[in-house]
Fold this protein.
Amino acid sequence: MILTHQQENPIGGTIPNMPSTHAELAKALERLLTPEAVLSGAAAERAYDCDAYTVDRSNPTAVVLPESTEEVAKVVRWCCDNNVPFTARGAGTGLSGGVLAALGGVVISTKRMTRILEIDVENCCLLAQSGIANKRISEAVKQFGLHFAPDPSSQTVSTIGGNIGENSGGPHTLKYGITVQHILGVTLVDPRGEILKLGGKLAGGPGYDFLGLIVGGEGTLGVVTEAWVKLVPVPKAVATALIAYSTIGDATKTVADIIAAGTIPAALEMMDRGILQAVRLAFGLQYPEGAEALLLIECDGEPETVASEMEIVKQICTRNNALEIRVAADEAERAKLWVARKKGIGAMGRIAPSIVTHDGVIPRSKLPEMLEFVYAVAKRQQIGVANLFHAGDGNLHPCFYFDDRDPDQIRRVIEAGEEILTRCIELGGSVSGEHGIGVEKIDLMKLMFAPEDLELQATSKRIFNDAMLCNPCKVLPNQKSCVEHQKRWRGTGW
Ligand SMILES: Cc1cc2nc3c(=O)[nH]c(=O)nc-3n(C[C@H](O)[C@H](O)[C@H](O)COP(=O)(O)OP(=O)(O)OC[C@H]3O[C@@H](n4cnc5c(N)ncnc54)[C@H](O)[C@@H]3O)c2cc1C
């Protein structure tokens, strides 16, 4: 069946010049690229209707698979000429609905843009196409003793374009910083189809920092096609410990004490009982009897520094009633200790059909209070919750598990998320640490920012994206001169 765009647009807006059927649009794109570079029809629409935030969905009209900057520019220019919305998509692992084709239109997938274009070992940088998976960059330069430091837990599949879109973090960003600190330059196809070069091999050129706007722009300011990334030396020594606690309070107190002692581990991650149960079920991993929380702590750097930092960490853990402290003896054991953290969310897939992973930030000192609040909200809303998160950054990830075939469960999950994120703001934190705003948290922006702050952001967006065809209905809520977001997205899945 061929559906018209008007029939499918959940916001109900009209896009006047848009080709009237999916088939017409797909044919036009096939003429522009090749038939093999265009996906359309029911299966493609279903496969590309959401990211890893599955509560809200919207079908694209077609998906294109360009291989170069020039092909992306061709598609964007065609979209502009025909008034068709377009949205960049990497691996689709985003957790806030950023790749949702909110008004239908063309999804520009970077799936075929995975080439490394230059490795400059002397200047410690690398140029790659934006569809390359994060982890492949580090693998490619391992032989030179270098790596790309930002490491979202999705790094085996998530792309550098997506990492740039969301300004992603990861377990090691506590010490090494987030994506924006590691991007030197990008090639951007702007929302009019012009090819721009922002930054380059060398960091910190003069003039306004537009690169800083693009990183974290959630694909609303153009399509990144290539990126210069910074490489840093692989640490000489690494020590990893997994520490079990019988209470959440002891674990969170340890986090605060370690940072207060002036020690900044490379990673300081926390998992609660819900995650332990999921990982036990999925991988048969065993943790000490009575364990209610785990901390995963990694120190890296020069061997002597690592040894003394780990000694301090162990003392603080013992002082805070640790049940067990396991320190990895070698690389194989280290990988094993990381399993609960890296595969925790995946393991929850065995417990329930759907998961929504929230992303809020609070001052570290508020962690115990905030976790209590999360458990209380989940209990009142009668939904399951497990927590695994970047404790060192105060970046909380409550994962609600539920059955999305039941509309009432979806409603309760959404309400619970809003309560928790609102509380994060009240405690002096933020509604996003690393997963972006997308469509999920768009309404909460009004709680975080004053109208004039939002207007300034909207003005910056219009510099790039005046026609609002580039990833429409994302990041900024409806406001003066920004009328794209006409409908609350939440719940369109019910
Ligand atoms: C199991 C799991 C673990 C995760 N762990 C972490 C974590 O530790 N830290 C973290 O920060 N996130 C994490 N995430 C979230 C997600 O993986 C990151 O946001 C990631 O950067 C998204 O990359 P992607 O290629 O999948 O992007 P997508 O989901 O495809 O896109 C994300 C956003 O970027 C935009 N975008 C994509 N490509 C481009 C481009 N070429 N140009 C311009 N804009 C573009 C999209 O329009 C969208 O707005 C996790 C997700 C999962 C499922």
Remarks:
- The first helix runs from residue 5 to 8.
